[in-house]
Amino acid sequence: MAHTVEKIGGTSMSRVDELRDTLFIGGNEGADLYNRVFVVSAFGGITDLLLEHKKTGEAGVYAAFASDEGEHGWFVALDKVAHAMREAHGKVLTHAGDIERADAFVQERLHGARNCLNDLKRLCAYGHFRLSEHMGQTRELLSGLGEAHSAFVTSLLLQRAGVNARFVDLTGWHDDGDVTLDDRITGAMDGVDVTEEMPIVTGYAQCAKGLMDEYDRGYSEVTFSRLAALTGAREAIIHKEFHLSSADPKLVGEDATRKLGRTNYDVADQLSNMGMEAIHPKAAKTLRQADIPLRVTNAFEPEDPGTLIDDQPAETPAVEIVTGLDLYSIELFEQDMVGVKGYDATFLDVLTRHKVRIVSKLSNANTITHFVDASMKQVRRVEKELADRYPSAEVRTRAVSIASVIGRDLNGLSVLTRGLQAIGEADCPCIGAAQGPRNVDVQFILPRDNLKPAIAALHRALIEEAGEEPLKRVA
User: For 380-383, which contacts have Cβ atoms below 8 Å and span 24 or more sequence positions?
Assistant: First the structure.
């Protein structure tokens, strides 16, 4: 029977001692333990300390190193990482020998990183070298430290429990860096027998092209998907700390939430567009092209099969999920736009140059409106450049939200009509709506303060009243 490739996220990794007995072993013994390859993220919070906090933007080692002007603030930040790593593995390892080995691993990796960064600082003190030219490689170096630590610790934990676990390091530590991602993975897996070993693989993989520039913090899912494709896995599995469900249970109530159970990659793409990634869209593309189904499970309910994602269409039309995202609308109004080419292309060029992610778009004869997932600083820069390009146009921005109703097949459900009625009955003003011809999603544009009640109203009208059984428990 072919193997599976399975990924565990950072929040779940912080409870890896619990997963040892349920997910990794789970009552299996002998040969039944194997034919599973695990790709692990760093322990929760470690990557935030190495790079920057994902939500607040608080500086980690990377940001401190980039802005340091001689105070060596990044030294302090790196010491903070060392303390957090030791604290993380100290909570999950119980044997003194394992803790000693994990401590030594942290010391060796962080000491090496410190020396590397220090040498780079000294080198860039000379006018021939620019620190900015090396920040991409610096971010790559720091990223791999967290995954190497968690993979090493997990292999120790499992070996102590009698599992033939094998630490597979893709971070390129002291290795030749001039290799492709595929070569990095196939080289590391060469000689690994998945029928007799349980590979514990780092979520970060070093390669010549680099992963951070294109994927940033989504790199572990890219590694995971390429590993599954290259090794011919029968199924790819992502273990999260929650089920993939019909809405945020905090908004609609745990008793009302449904587990998806089955959906397809088209829905996964729509979720990614709304900032609710089941998997990074580039990783989903890799799995889809390799004809590998993806399963999303709750790591702490291993007996539950979770949600299967493949390319199969729905048997019957149904709304599967309601979600939403806070955005900004950028509106370009120009009376003379009618019949004149170039406005669309210029608008897109400005958004691309300022690295603004477009979620949706509406346009008519003299107005183009993009709904973007960006910071206010980015939005103001776009607004200014558009005003400079088109001095006679009106450029307006507004804080809005989009509530999105998603399903594999929404044909015949009158989602747009019923959705507008549900939002209206909840006293939520709707300032726009859009439905494409493929009938996989319907978007409702709302004032920023109305997103949460609108999601609850849409879920109640389109999912709860459809009479499906609610999910009994959502972590």
Answer: 381/354, 382/330, 382/350, 382/351, 382/354, 382/356, 383/330
Which CATH homologous superfamily contains domain 321-466? Answer: VC0802-like (3.30.2130.10)
Query: What residue spans define the domains of the chain?
Result: 4-241, 321-466
* Whole-angstrom distance, CA of residue 363 vs CA of residue 351: 16
Say yes or no to pLDDT of 473 above 70: no
Choose between 288 and 70: higher pLDDT: 288
d(CA 40, CA 6): 8
pTM of the predicted protein model: 0.88
Q: Buried b / exposed e across 47-60, counting CB within 10 Å, b at 16+?
A: bbbbbbeeeeeebb
Taking only the tens place, the pLDDT of each residue in 342-384 is 899 999 999 999 999 999 999 999 999 999 999 999 999 999 9
Statement: 4-241 belongs to CATH 3.40.50.300: no
* Interatomic CA distance for residues 114 and 131, integer angstroms: 16
Alpha helices, H only, 43-123: 46-50, 61-67, 73-92, 96-123
Record the tokens describing residue 111, joined without a space. Answer: 């000491």
pLDDT category, 472, cuts 50, 70, 90? very low
- Amino acid at position 132, single letter: S
